[in-house]
What we know:
Layout: E1 4-8, H1 15-27, E2 31-36, H2 47-58, E3 64-69, H3 73-79, E4 84-89, H4 92-108, E5 113-118, H5 128-136, H6 147-157
Parallel strand pairs: 1-2, 1-4, 2-3, 4-5
Amino acid sequence: MANAVVPGSFDPVTNGHLDIIARAAGMFEQVTVAVARNSSKTPLFSTEERLEMLAEVCTVYPNVTVDAFEGLLVSYALGRGATVIVRGLRAVSDFEYELQMALMNRRLNSAVETVFMMTGADYSYLSSNIVKEIARLGGSIEGLVPNSVGQRLQQKLGKPRC
Ligand code: ADP
């Protein structure tokens, strides 16, 4: 069985991410959830905060570890002994970017294969951005993120949830 990396921003981790992580944990021997340090996005949570939140919710999966990376993902994956990159697919809108990244990563190093998993039906509309937006506006994010993440969001944004 191969080892896999599940890369992303995870700003913050949502139940949609967790669904993908849980399914990857069932398919691969060792799974590394890898937080990108060099993302062009301006994150709400620091890399360390994102790692802490992920570590908390991933403790239930004995073969999942959490780490941060910078630089080329394919080099990072091979350095971790992983030959598979797992990405989640939601709507058609994800497809174009994901296709571009997967083809570029294969061109950079064909020893690493990108594997796509379809989103869980309950999470197809869920993204870290929409969760942050709802939390900012004071809406309920219950069921969208783990409780521990909901509490952190509340602290960070200083908003009560309704
Ligand atoms: P990135 O910033 O690289 O898009 P994200 O943190 O947004 O990273 O997401 C990491 C991975 O999780 C991506 O493959 C993304 O498609 C996937 N993902 C995010 N939300 C969901 C969801 N609701 N269902 C399935 N996959 C998801």
